[in-house]
Prior knowledge:
The first copy, chain A, has about 325 residues and is an all-alpha fold. The first copy, chain A, has helices at about 10-25, 30-40, 45-55, 65-90, 100, 105-125, 130-150, 160-185, 190-215, 220-225, 230, 240-245, 250-255, 265-275, 280-295, 305-320, and strands at about 90-95, 95.
Amino acid sequence: MAALSVLDPVQSDLELVEAEIQRVGQVEYSFLENLLQHVLSTQGKRIRPALVLLAASFHQYRLQFLVPLAAAIELLHTATLVHDDLVDNSPTRRGKPTLHSLTDRAVTVLVGDYLFANAAALCTETQNTRVMQVFGRTLMTICEGELKQIFTAGFWRQSREDYYQKIERKTASLIRTATETGAILSGAPEEQIDALRSYGYNLGMAFQIVDDILDFVGNEALMGKPVGSDLRQGTVTLPTIRLLEEDPDNSALRRVFDDGDSSDEAIREAIAAVHRSSGIDYARAEARRFADLAVQQLDSLPPTPERAALESISEYVLDRMT
Amino acid sequence: MAALSVLDPVQSDLELVEAEIQRVGQVEYSFLENLLQHVLSTQGKRIRPALVLLAASFHQYRLQFLVPLAAAIELLHTATLVHDDLVDNSPTRRGKPTLHSLTDRAVTVLVGDYLFANAAALCTETQNTRVMQVFGRTLMTICEGELKQIFTAGFWRQSREDYYQKIERKTASLIRTATETGAILSGAPEEQIDALRSYGYNLGMAFQIVDDILDFVGNEALMGKPVGSDLRQGTVTLPTIRLLEEDPDNSALRRVFDDGDSSDEAIREAIAAVHRSSGIDYARAEARRFADLAVQQLDSLPPTPERAALESISEYVLDRMT
Lengths: 322, 322
């Protein structure tokens, strides 16, 4: 995990955040405790909390408020994953069993709610109404995105604009909120809040595009899910949209989407069609464009190790796709 | 619905709250809009928003903050009902189909989340960190209660203390939050906030005990669910606990709980056993005790129409059980 050295400047504070997150998993019932600890330990690299801390580093850095905020953002993310996996009926995440495949669906609904509740309660510890407002609206945006995705699942001929709107809601909104609220809590001036918010948005867009590319080119063992999962679930992402722009009548895609054929062979052929198109190169270029835009936002910030870390994170995001 | 005349002093403000609640149901997708409107229109009498408004009436009454708070409390309540009905797999609520029986479970999870999100976002419109803190903790308390209920579902020999703790989390905590946050937002002095908070807690306890009594004596058509639903679901409430105190080896209860027999005949016999015991009278006396305690908290408040309304609400809660 050498790439995570980019988080060095905030490593010790991240440990405080981790302790706060793990505290949420300490409850009265050992069965529930086991489930919570499974969920709280199988999630990613704590990029979002790190972004909160890094974004706050340019001004007054009060850990008493910042640590609960960083934990709240990660818990909100975790809560949405728990419910998403349930909604999508995904058996695994990062190669480990999802919560609903370890227990029943009812418990999974409530554990997700419990994580939402803890996120909300931790966020109020910031005692900052603006931060809470941004947080509340982001939760709404994410839910709207999820619902939109369900209600448009049948419409596979989506435009790039549809796609960008979707990934903004699903992914970029929370990453934007991480940097924006970190900056707000540090008392940064408005133009720096704007810059860090915009950094987060663009980073989040790059992040999701790369994730969607990895669904075509990724290493299954590393990702913990089979290549082509999106196509199999009827989810159209940027490489597919690009192929459709080039070849609206592509037979492999029509077989999957119009005929609803999600056999291994049909998916394999659709993946091959995307690979033959400019879709993946195009998506890579778009990810690079967003990552570059993210870094440009940092121009006005002082050249600290934290700024360097924010720049490196955007490189790290792009590195995943190669 | 003559009983609702108790809400007269806040009727016009309640209409603003209702408009705010209905706004949440106005979304882009007509299918989702239909589901949201079904959920937002089949819920109860808006007692919780009325309590927010009444509790705020003794001081400065700023509708700009109070209306979003009252709507947030009702939406939080609605969100928990949507997920509870899903978790309990209940086909109807108040005689109308529950959301998950109209659509699929995945959409129901997300609609509940969406209502939570809207509740959280509306709550931040109060711009009052203390109110948001109380709100966030209450959401946590409710979720903890739901999870506890699931994880103790097998243990039917519960004590009165277990029961009181359970209904505090499940019901009284949100009603307490309605009056407490209303009072906070009005700028009431601490002792009045305490009094109104305590009023809400005691009212909520009475409310849930009455609800649990109605499951033994209620009119099925009026309640929209069959008598004995709690026993059928393995839920032990105060009348049953009282019977168990009198007769720990009661064969009708052992048949339902130890043998897991939820046939109509077994449930009918268990209901009859509860009726033969002092359980229902005891629960009625307890409901009266809590309702009286609620009213006593109001002693220090000026004798306004709003205080009279708060007193009447506690009578209205008791009237339901006769």
